[in-house]
Specification:
It is built from 11 helices and 5 strands, in the order αββααβαααββααααα. By secondary structure, it is mainly alpha-helical. The structure holds zinc ion (ZN).
Length: 333
């Protein structure tokens, strides 16, 4: 604060008079109301654009250089868990141990596991039409685009699974989609999700949505927009915004906790089940593979939290530079 006053004091020396006088250290002095408003708009928009550009570039770069290579490493074909018959028997065992009923004629609402062959994929795609865009979906899409975590269409999701790059548990349909080849071990992780769902219902899912669709974008927005300095006055709204910006890193990390909890617990259940039921090599592979997948989620959470923080700091620097520039211009003008 002292340093800032000193700078302002130096800026405000009026050299036009022989006796050097000090102006009040208010940078807005000398501006008309109209100039003040346009100055604020200019400062705000430059700070937001600059901060967001940094967020955008960093997120894109890290996706390219960390997420993609990581995914490639994680989803490479393996010689483990490729025996479908043996896997299927283990799947039945895990369902039984967790009191999850598989789908049968007698129990049509039970859990279904569909191995996505080319034929099944084509059949689903030809039948399935994309759901009509609702306001909720449009908002989710926009938030996804802004935060660079775009939502995927049904076709895109199923294509990834068919290509062996993912597996998916759909709680509403009580269904697990598995790739036909590769990722044999992932089915146990997906059953882990089904067990989680049995325990917690929609709770974790809703908390996850609250984090990714509200808390994370809101923190990003506040970090870009809120660049005012504390003026000593007690303003509750203002201090809430300042708190959010100051603790952006922790808040965004917090917003990712439900996802980390869900994924971590699903993998923990898978590994716990596989102990003593599979060969030591297979168990070791499952541990490593599921551990890496979790590490991937964790790194992602740290990256997005870091990016929001950096974007906020950048926005602050730009805002101060513009304010300083405007102040100097007034002195000269
Ligand atoms: Zn998962």
């Amino acid at each position: 604060m002292k340093v800032k006053n000193l700078i302002n004091a130096n800026n405000n020396i009026d050299f036009s008079k022989k006796n050097i006088t000090f102006k009040k250290s208010s940078p807005s002095e000398g501006f008309s109301n109209k100039e003040k408003i346009s100055g604020t708009i200019k400062e705000k928009s430059l700070a937001i654009i600059g901060g967001y550009s940094v967020f955008y570039s960093l997120t894109k770069l890290l996706k390219l250089f960390i997420n993609k290579p990581f995914a490639k490493y994680f989803f490479k074909p393996s010689q483990y868990f490729t025996d479908q018959e043996k896997n299927y028997a283990l799947v039945q065992k895990m369902l039984l141990e967790n009191n999850i009923l598989p789908k049968t004629n007698a129990n049509p609402k039970g859990l279904r596991i569909i191995y996505l062959t080319e034929k099944i994929f084509n059949k689903i795609i030809s039948q399935k039409t994309e759901p009509k865009p609702t306001i909720k979906k449009i908002i989710i899409d926009i938030i996804g685009k802004i935060t660079l975590s775009p939502t995927k269409t049904v076709r895109e999701r199923l294509t990834k699974i068919k290509e062996g790059k993912n597996a998916n548990f759909l709680s509403k349909a009580n269904l697990i989609f598995m790739p036909e080849k590769k990722l044999g071990h992932a089915v146990f992780h997906e059953i882990g999700h089904a067990v989680n769902y049995k325990f917690f219902g929609k709770k974790v899912f809703l908390l996850n949505q609250l984090g990714s669709l509200i808390l994370y974008p809101l923190t990003l927005g506040i970090s870009l927009f809120n660049n005012e300095r504390k003026n000593g006055k007690k303003d509750k709204k203002k201090s809430a915004l300042n708190f959010t910006k100051k603790h952006a890193l922790e808040i965004v990390l917090l917003s990712q906790l439900p996802l980390l909890f869900e994924e971590g617990l699903a993998s923990k259940r898978a590994i716990h089940f596989l102990k003593n039921k599979t060969s030591p090599q297979e168990l070791k592979f499952a541990k490593k593979s599921l551990g890496l997948a979790f590490l991937h989620y964790l790194i992602n959470a740290v990256i997005i939290a870091g990016n929001v923080k950096i974007a906020g700091v950048t926005s602050n620097i730009i805002s101060n530079k513009v304010k300083q520039h405007q102040s100097v211009t007034t002195q000269l003008g």
